[in-house]
Structure formats: structure tokens, C-alpha cells
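pls ignore typos typing on phone
flavin-adenine dinucleotide + seq
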Amino acid sequence: MSADAVLKPDFAARRRHFIFTDEHEALRESIRAFAIKELAPHAEEWEETTFPDWVFKRMGELGFLGLDKPEEYGGQGGDYYSSLVLAEELVHAHSGGLTMGVAVQTDMAMPPILAFGTEEQKQQWVVPAIAGDAILCLGITEPDAGSDVAGIKTRAVRDGDDYVITGSKTYITNGHRAHAIVLVTKTDPDAGYDGFTLFLVPMDAPGVVREKKLAKLGMHASDTALLAFQDVRVPAGAVLGQVGKGFYHIMWELQGERLIGAAGAVAAAQRVFDQTLQYATERTAFGRQIGKFQVTRHKFAEMATKIESARQLVYSTAWRFAEGHYPVREISMAKLHASRIAVEVADECIQIHGGAGYMKEYGVERVWRDLRLNRIGAGTDEIMLDVIGRSYGL
Ligand SMILES: Cc1cc2nc3c(=O)[nH]c(=O)nc-3n(C[C@H](O)[C@H](O)[C@H](O)COP(=O)(O)OP(=O)(O)OC[C@H]3O[C@@H](n4cnc5c(N)ncnc54)[C@H](O)[C@@H]3O)c2cc1C
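k done
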């Protein structure tokens, strides 16, 4: 640059983060186009009916359920960032419930099977799950134990070559439609953290009861189940990972789930921000665009700053995760911060819309209702704070 050149801010400049390549951007465009064209038109209807199973099949056909999964199981063999792209671009389906149902498949249930499963288990469940032919769910939470995972009561008792499972799980996303569940049980209640074991249980096994469809504040397009396991007999081959190591396996799983949830929360906040920015240039009051009031301008500035800070935290943490680190503290920070700011942004966007923000027609209230889950699911704000605090030896 010459000494007399004048530097002017270029707010329209490309702002691609260094973790993403041209391939990621091409993928971003195709997922966004798919979400806008094939999913978003049904978003309203799916709030009433939950999204249909063909979404999994279609996404399987397009390769979107295995972006970062090994090619030998039908995946695309992409890097971790490709799953971030999926989480980010699916917000254009305008359906938090759909995004969550898909994330349970790709980033909650599949990773532990790929990481700890046998070749047979991968062939039986991961291959059809990537193709969209099998739907998976994950069962940690129970009526009497959510945050306190160590307090679960579901028991798996060895009986000859089999295990017999008894207990219940609640708030299970995809629980009504799933073909298999990654189930957290206790095999040795006296062994503390070393007494847990994961199982891969077919949902049509005798004794698996889909007890109730649970009604909820948001995420209406997803199905949420209360499940009972009544003397469910499974062979020893249904054990996922090591007997007695289930607690550590599921804590590992939760890290990926939290990070992908954080990425989705930031993207949803950005989308509702963009929608509201547009509204603020169209709506007038007292003879001017509402966005031109200084108070509104500053609201956008505050929101944009929050979104950007959360995004950078998610990306830098994702980079460490993809490099093979195990950044539990940073993932907890990213999950906490992204969830909080996303809810704050959605709330402010309702405010900027005025009465329209309260109306279903604009969809802003739905974003708030859907995002409100992020401060609870996969570990509450309070649990994230505790993990972060404890990481300093407190
Ligand atoms: C729509 C939806 C979908 C879900 N999907 C799934 C799923 O697919 N699979 C699954 O396994 N689970 C799922 N969950 C469960 C979710 O992960 C739990 O709800 C969450 O972990 C909190 O557990 P809890 O509801 O039992 O709350 P509790 O653990 O009872 O917590 C109640 C309150 O106490 C606070 N608290 C608890 N312990 C502490 C502590 N040590 N310090 C400070 N405060 C504390 C919490 O932060 C919270 O504010 C889902 C939940 C919802 C709502």
C-alpha cells in the first residue's frame, strides 16, 4: 500500500473465517439452497405435525448426513468444519425442531458409534443412518436425573450371554421415530463413574415402550419422547464401547453435541438479526425508519457484537477440537455464551418488531421459543458454569 493511500472501512468485504475453504463455501451454498427450497416451505406445517421422516432420506441422498463421516460407511469424509457448516445453514429451514432432530442423528448418536462401536455395529447402524434409512436417538436423561448424569437409575444386568435393561428415559429427541437408541445405563451401581455402560438398543426390541409424546414450549417440529425399558433383553454384542466406561464415553459425546449446538445457536441468532434488520429498514414510525432511531441502531450494534463474539469463540474452539484437542473448558464457554446471546438476540428482535414480533406470522417469536432450549439442553447454563469454574480447580 502506498503511504498516501486512504484506508476506508469496507463493511461489505468477504468475511470468511480462516477455518473455512472454498469447498466449505460451496457446501454452504448447496445446504442453504436445499433448506430454503425443500424445507422452509413446510416449516409452518411441521410445527403442527413434526417434520416427516423423508427429510432424513432426502438428506441422506444428498450426502448431508455424513459430511464429516468416513467414506467407508457412506460418508463424505469431510473435516469437522463441514458439520459446522451443516448446523449453520440448516437454520434457513426456519425450523429449530428439524435442526435439532438432524443434529441428534449426525452429532449426538452417530459419533459414539463411530468412536467406540464395533465394525458390526457401524455396519448395522451408521451405514443406514448416513443413508437416511435408519433414524437414531440418544438416551441420557431420566425423569429423576438430568444434569446429574451420575444419578441415572436405568440398569443393565448381565444374564448369561445377554443383558436385561430396565428403566426410563425422558425428553428423548427422535424418540418416537427412531430405529435405535444409544442408551446410557448403569451396569455396576457401586462402581461410581466406572459403573456405566452404553448400549445400542433397537427400538423394536420387546419391552421398549414409547410411552408419551411430550408437548413443549418450542422446537415443535421435533418429537420428544418419554420411553420405558421393561426387561429389555439384548445380546452382549449390543454393548457400545467398554463395559464400565459409559460415563466417560458419554461425557466425550456431550462435547461435540455442545459445540455443534453452539454453532447452530449463533447461526440462528444471525438469521433473526438479518430478518429484523430488514424489518427495521421497512417499518416507519414518527416519519422515519425505526432502524434510524439511535436507540434501535445501538440495539443492532449490541446484537452484532454479541453474535460476533460468540461466533469467534465457537470457531476458535472448533479449530482446537478439529486439531484433536479436548477443550472441555472452551466448549463449555462456547455453549454457555452462544446460548445466552442467542436468546438475548431473539428477545431483542421481538422487541424491535413491536407487536409484529409477538405474532406468529413473522416467525420471530418461534426463534425465541426454539432457542430457549439451548440454555437447558445438553447441559444447562448452570452446569456449564460449574464445569468452567471447576476447571480452575475450584
Ligand atoms: C426439548 C428437549 C429435548 C431434549 N433432548 C434430549 C435427548 O435427545 N436426549 C437426552 O438424553 N436428553 C434430552 N434432553 C434433556 C436435557 O439435556 C435436560 O433437560 C438437561 O440436561 C437438564 O436436565 P433436567 O431437565 O433434568 O434438569 P435438572 O437437572 O433437574 O435441573 C433443574 C435446575 O437445577 C439446576 N441445577 C442442577 N444441578 C445443578 C448444579 N450442580 N449446580 C447448579 N444448578 C444445578 C439446573 O441448571 C436447572 O436450572 C432434552 C430436553 C429438552 C427440553
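DSSP finds twelve helices and ten strands in the chain. The beta strands are 136-139, 155-159, 162-173, 180-186, 196-202, 208-213, 224-235, 239-240, 284-285, 288-289. more later
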